[in-house]
Amino acid sequence: MTIRFDGRVAIVTGAGNGLGRAHALGLARRGAKVVVNDFGGARDGTGGSLSPADSVVEEIRKAGGVAMADGADVSNFEQVQAMVDRATKEWGSVDLLCANAGILRDKSFGKMEIADFAKVIDVHLVGTFYCCKAVWDGMRARNYGRIVVTSSSSGLYGNFGQANYGAAKAGMVGLMNVLAEEGRKNDIRVNAIAPTAATRMTEELLQPQVLALMKPEAITPAVEYLLSEDAPTKTIMGAGAGSFTVIRILESEGINLPESEWTPDAVAAHFAEIGEMSKAKTLDGAFHQTQKYVEQAAARMGMKL
Ligand code: NAD
Q1: pLDDT band of 1, cuts 50, 70, 90
Q2: In the predicted model, what is the mean pLDDT of residues 173-180?
Q3: What are phi and psi of 126, to 5 degrees?
Q4: Rounded to an integer, what is the distance from CA 304 to the centroid of its chain?
Q5: Ligand 1 pocket, residues with Cβ under 6 angstroms
Q6: Helices 127-142 and 163-183, interaxial angle, to 10°?
């Protein structure tokens, strides 16, 4: 099997450096026309320049690929819409979106300024929403779209000093879950990547021999798979250092208590049983939860639904 993207148009945001650069190069190598978006600022989201995007476009062209640079700030909807319009005018469509742009403003929660929280949410979560929003109608009209949003273990599992970033990255999963449902009937598939790689975001956190194992190119195959025709939908993949995983939110089977036991003491008394995970499952959607609890209540009361 050879996964190719010939005839497809891709936008990769934050593609001037790190992971986005690797994704843009990979997609172009496999035939996609690529919009290399990057606002070109510092790691904390200050400054800006088109040169990182331009140099990735040059690398793609030298390798025989097709690309254009775009300097949109993903947290500005007009600029994002203009980027999507320009790509659509030039190449006819936007079929693939890899929402990858991101910044860091790490601080322990007590010291975190309101502006540091707001800016990180703005670039990661609102910026990803803007990119999805700007490509959505076109994807629906053409009955085809593949979207990958970029989450993080910080949001999925927690990390000291990243309340802003963790909240934004967990928010990606919520966005993915809902867009995957809404995109289903138009063959728009929406997935998330939780990467770990050596980039300017992580270079100070890990030792050189660890960083050497964590090339950004190790993430790209997972992103390419999630952007391919046969991609799954509503799936979080982990990737790093050659490891590839699927990450799921699981819910325990739980227990159903009679109204006489709707007390915190009963919850405390049963907590081990409530949290027993051997029969834990991922639920298909929000209503699956309602259905499960109602069925458990009915079963406890011997009621037929
Ligand atoms: P990076 O700093 O090397 O690349 C991020 C790029 O995004 C930069 O080129 C930057 O200029 C661009 N960018 C930032 N704000 C932008 C904006 N408003 N508009 C357009 N472009 C903007 O970092 P990276 O490690 O390659 O990160 C890529 C993505 O992966 C981010 O979303 C990051 O949160 C996520 N991530 C990375 C790791 C890791 O281990 N490196 C782990 C988890 C998640």
Answers
A1: low
A2: 98
A3: -70, -40
A4: 41
A5: 13-14, 16-20, 37-41, 43, 45, 52, 73-75, 100-103, 123, 127, 150, 152, 195-197, 199-202
A6: 10
What would the pLDDT profile of 245-263 be if each residue is shown by its tens digit?
999 999 999 999 999 999 9
What spacing in Å lies between the alpha carbon of 7 and ligand 1's midpoint?
27
Sheet of 9-12: strand order equals 66-70, 33-37, 9-12, 96-99, 145-150, 188-195, 236-240, 243-247
Residue range 196-211, pLDDT digits in tens = 999 998 888 889 999 9
pLDDT exceeds 70 at position 121:
yes
Is residue 222 over pLDDT 70?
A: yes
Rg over CA atoms, the chain: 21
C-alpha span between 271 and 255 (Å, rounded): 10
38: CA distance to ligand 1 center in Å? 10
Separation CA 222–CA 22 (nearest Å): 12
On the CB side of 235, CA atoms within 13 Å amount to 17
**Most informative mutation of 11, 13, 17, 214 for ligand 1 (most atoms within 8 A of CB):** 17
Task: Set out the domains of the chain in order of their start, with CATH numbers.
Answer: 9-247 (3.40.50.720), 259-301 (no CATH)
Kindly write down the DSSP assignment for every residue of 207-243, as one continuous string: -HHHHTT--GGGTHHHHHHHTSTT--SS-EEEEETTE
Instruction: Name the residue among 187, 11, 169, 5 with its Cα closest to residue 83.
Output: 11
> What's the CA-to-centroid distance between 117 and ligand 1, angstroms?
16
